[in-house]
Amino acid sequence: MVNFVIIVIVSYLFGSFPTAILAGKLLKKIDIRDYGSGNAGATNVFRVLGWKAGLSVLLIDMLKGFIPVFFIAPYFQPNPDTVIYYQVAAAVAAIAGHIWTIFAGFKGGKGVGTSAGAFLGLAPLPLLSALLFFVIVVGLTRYVSLGSLLASLVFLLVLLLQKYMFGVAISPVLIYLSIVIVILIWYAHRSNIKRLLQGEENQIEFKKKD
């Protein structure tokens, strides 16, 4: 039980690292939440600070989810029969930390990057399939929100196909977690969904703004 608590706390702190906010402070001496969409995530950094800063923030945000799931949880719970439960707890804690970061008044990003990192450690094939779909959608439409929403569904679909069509041994708890995370991502993007439906969503520019 002590190990479980340690995993949750450490994973939450990993997820809480305010990457986008620090990028704004270090690169432009601004609070990224006062610009663009007002969101403390990689997409807004991409929009406000340029693609290099946005990509760097995205990769770090992914590590915030990957490290707790792939390294921290197995270290504290090496038993292969039960480690999945600790990994799921680590994933949830890291994603929660990103969305509600303790280091910035519990106002963080929408959890997509950190979720991607966590699931890269839990289910790499579905995650890579979702990332590929995300790149295609964003490349064609320049709507990052649309890419994120559809990619989350692709991830869940591939995971379900692996388990129920191809017989891959996937723990039910991972299926349940995936469903919860998809719902959470769609809920976090509710304002984006409204703007998409109204034709008012901002498209991303693949160049640095002055």
The beta-strand count equals 0
Helix content: over 70%
State the low-pLDDT regions, or none: none
Largest sheet: none
Structural class: mainly alpha
Individual helix count: 10
Order of helices and strands: HHHHHHHHHH
Q: How confident is the prediction overall: mean pLDDT?
A: 93
Distance between the termini: 51 Å
The gross shape turns out to be globular
Describe this structure in a few short sentences.
By secondary structure, the protein is mostly helical.
Task: Explain the overall architecture.
- The structure is a single chain.
- 72% of the residues lie in helices and 0% in strands.
- With 210 residues, the chain is mainly alpha-helical.
- The chain has one domain (2-198).
- The chain is globular, with a radius of gyration of 17 Å.
- It starts with a helix and ends in a 12-residue tail after the last helix.
- The mean pLDDT is 93.
Key features?
210 residues; 72% helix; mainly alpha; 10 helices
List the helices and strands and how they pair.
Layout: H1 2-16, H2 19-28, H3 42-49, H4 51-76, H5 83-99, H6 112-122, H7 124-141, H8 144-164, H9 172-188, H10 190-198
Helix pairs in contact: 1-4, 1-5, 2-3, 3-4, 4-5, 4-6, 5-6, 5-9, 6-7, 7-8, 8-9
